[in-house]
Amino acid sequence: MIDPANKLLREQGSGIPIGLWVPPPNRELTEDRYKEVKEAGFTFVLGLSEYDGTTAFIRKALDAAHANGLLYLVRDPRLTELADDELSLVEPYVAEFAGHPAYAGHLFIDEPDMSLFPKLRALKAAYGKAAPHGLAYVNLFPTYASDRQRGGDHEQYVSGFLEQFEPAVLSYDHYPFLTPKPGRTHTITQDYYTNLRIVSEAARARNIPFWLFIQTLAFNRSNRDPLEAEIRWQVYTSLAYGAKGIQYFTYWTPDDGGETFGDAMIDRAGGKTRHYGEVQRINRDISLIGGVLAQLEPFGVLAHGSISPPLEGALKSFAPIGRIEGDAAVIGCFRDREGQPYALVVNESFTQPGSVRIGLDDSAQAAAVWEDGQKTALRLDQGEFALHLDPGEGKLIAFGV
């Protein structure tokens, strides 16, 4: 169950937490740089390389986050380097930050393999005593990682993590947009929806939220630079599956090393790229419906038309949706605490606008849509209403009697 005392999970009660990976580097760690983060629509920052043998930059990042109303997850590599007989050091390491008003938790590790789960569980137990209201954060591999990387197949990997670590939030990454090359028949991962389904079903079974990362840049010659509609499509399809937190990979462009990177939202020289404005617009749209979405319980998705990549495990029906016509769509199905139905209708295409007509069954006689944060009644024509959707766009619908 969610610990409501944790700051980031409390935030989820009033909206969708929006985070970033790769914050401004230490040489650019200023309040003004974190103001840019805030102005792009982010609500929290995941630390990365602030620890440089001292904790001075971590404290500076916490101060810069707090000055701009942001929350911050500390990444302190000393924690995961502790041996089993050194876990008593967790408390003094964590205590230095846990009382800070911007502190939301610790990022333990990114993409661990299954052999690390017992150690992470012990670390979490020690951490819980030191920071009972902090988030012990771990991010998991995607479905396209190898069994060797994970230490088992993907469903075993996710279920093993849930059973051993018992996280408050289930987070993972999956970067779907691939670079065209000879012999490759597709430029998007074919297991994108499979990953969403596995994680969303696992999170629902545990009654915890799931978060995921959104691709914003090209990297390693394997993944291409996404367009704005492709970033939007990732966000809205994820929300349709019930994601309660959105995170972006990356904000600042990382330096090349073992991996190579194209420009992210901020380039290496500190300038804003086109991705900054793109993500800023998308984050604004999320914030306008996030307060409603955060309160809804997901039940799965309906699939209409030809969906590519393949989508399996879709719902057969969801009242009061009686029929669907028009262009291909992925439709997230939800209910609020009173049992009232909602739908997030997403254009399956990230290249073309779409139109969808939805007919109601006898269980509802009215529908409303959120436009620019305002709930507006839809005009019904013989029990049907029409939606126009930009490429990758989603629209939230409420049904009533």
Automatic annotation (TrEMBL):
Instruction: Say which domain of life the source belongs to.
Output: Bacteria
From the record, what ranges are coiled-coil?
none
Keywords assigned: Glycosidase, Hydrolase
Give the matching SUPFAM superfamilies.
(Trans)glycosidases
Q: Which InterPro entries match?
A: GH, Glyco_hydro_42_N
Q: Which Gene3D superfamilies match?
A: Glycosidases (3.20.20.80)
Which is one GO molecular function term here?
A: beta-galactosidase activity
Q: What is this protein called?
A: Beta-galactosidase
Source organism per entry reads Paenibacillus hodogayensis
Q: Identify the taxonomic lineage of the organism of origin.
A: Bacteria, Bacillati, Bacillota, Bacilli, Bacillales
